[in-house]
Amino acid sequence: MVKICCIGAGYVGGPTMAVIALNCPSIEVVVVDISVTRISAWNSDQLPIYEPGLNEVVKQCKGRNLFFSTDIEKHVSEADIIFVSVNTPTKTRGLGAGKAADLTYWESAARMIADVSKSNKIVVEKSTVPVKTAEAIERILTHNSKGIKYQILSNPEFLAEGTAIQDLFKPDRVLIGGRETPDGLKAIQALKDVYAHWVPEDRIITTNLWSAELSKLAANAFLAQRISSVNAMSALCEATGADVSQVSHAVGKDSRIGPKFLNASVGFGGSCFQKDILNLVYICECNGLAEVANYWKQVIKVNDYQKNRFVNRVVSSMFNTVSGKKIGIMGFAFKKDTGDTRETPAIDVCKGLLGDKARLSIYDPQATADQIQRDLTMNKFDWDHPIHLQPMSPTGVKQVSIAWDAYEASKDAHALCILTEWDEFKTLDYRRIFDNMQKPAFVFDGRNVVNVEMLRDIGFIVYSIGKPLDPWLKNMPAVA
Ligand code: NAI
């Protein structure tokens, strides 16, 4: 029986291994992690992450050929194929701080593999890593090899949170990069055989190691760039009276462009986009490609601009001050159908409003109160470390309360800010919400989910990203 061990039981390791286990009953899959609480949660009925369809998949194979364990060394030493899916945070100190990937966790996993292995291994990079990481890992493994042979493969993960299970069952492509040597090709084939249990052959792409590593960074940079492009247009739409949804629709009809990822919003978030672009920028700079680095940097700058612009709209619309005013925050996760709050634009928007002394009442259907408070107190990039190594949040932010539902969050509020596109925000009883708010009552829709006309008929002053401005907002000071 082929044995797979995956180091890292997070958003990537957990779902990917569950789908492999379900589709490959003849393979034993063990997911290991240094975080005892994470592994206990995987072994309980309350999984550590929320992802539609994940529960059902895990239920079918947990205890059959899918296991979660903290006994890392035992399972690594027994495995034929080892996936490494640990955190790759942005460095906060030293060389490359604020941009380069911090490979501390990766390196320690590689050293541990070298320490405990007694048989040949295929080591698979599942984490997103800088180009040429495989070479560094190869060196660590071979310098400590005791005669054991290692093959390193790059198999970046393209799943999107919120649709991870769907994406894993029907991936657009599976990418496997490896050495173009007889042993390298054999390793590529071994991993291909795993995916071939359910992925059609023509969707499994094989490349050299460096192309696979770079493709992941490139794919995320392209996706984020589309969002920044449409968000840049949204500012121009507001200035000219164009409607960004109409522009996106017209642009997306061009088959060379396509309709996906063209929704204007308060900004992109999630654990990957910013981190991967910063990493790409750093690699460009290290290779002397300043123009290329600046080009990609701009994608992040526009994202930051969009978040600032939103905060400025809120404050300037409300007589240039939100001091002491209650603002209901609808949604905190970085997108719908996930509880993940890593790099969510809600953090910067909330911090911006708190900076202007607002009182916030935050409601999100999935993000926990503890997580929200941590996010609002943590330093930039600290979130991307194993949970037990993250700084404890001392006390929550005083001006922030967490609400049970949208109605509680909006009660007596002066304004609502919709920051995640949860479906339930489309069908709230806005008449009831309006009646319980201070007047004038504002809605700032950062995801363009509400029916603007209906809300204006009720009496709200509504701001929607990239849409013709409410007459109220037209008379307010211009926003930067
Ligand atoms: P995560 O933070 O949810 O999970 C990483 C896990 O690794 C944590 O549970 C941590 O405790 C564990 N870990 C760290 N060092 C360890 C060690 N030495 N031994 C055992 N366990 C260790 O992170 P996530 O989101 O799963 O991401 C993992 C990698 O995959 C990152 O490189 C990320 O950039 C990449 N990625 C993430 C995607 C996403 O949508 N979240 C999509 C595609 C790639």
From TrEMBL:
Its EC number is 1.1.1.22. Pfam families: UDPG_MGDP_dh (PF00984), UDPG_MGDP_dh_C (PF03720), UDPG_MGDP_dh_N (PF03721). Keywords: NAD, Oxidoreductase. GO terms for cellular component: nucleus. Residues 328-452 form the UDP-glucose/GDP-mannose dehydrogenase C-terminal domain. It comes from the Eukaryota. NAD(+) binds at residues 8-13, 33, 38, 86-90, 127-128, 161, 272-275, 342. The keyword Nucleus does not apply. It catalyses: UDP-alpha-D-glucose + 2 NAD(+) + H2O = UDP-alpha-D-glucuronate + 2 NADH + 3 H(+). Pathway: Nucleotide-sugar biosynthesis; UDP-alpha-D-glucuronate biosynthesis; UDP-alpha-D-glucuronate from UDP-alpha-D-glucose: step 1/1. Belongs to the UDP-glucose/GDP-mannose dehydrogenase family. PANTHER family: UDP-GLUCOSE 6-DEHYDROGENASE (PTHR11374:SF3), UDP-GLUCOSE DEHYDROGENASE/UDP-MANNAC DEHYDROGENASE (PTHR11374). This is UDP-glucose 6-dehydrogenase. It comes from Gossypium raimondii (Peruvian cotton).
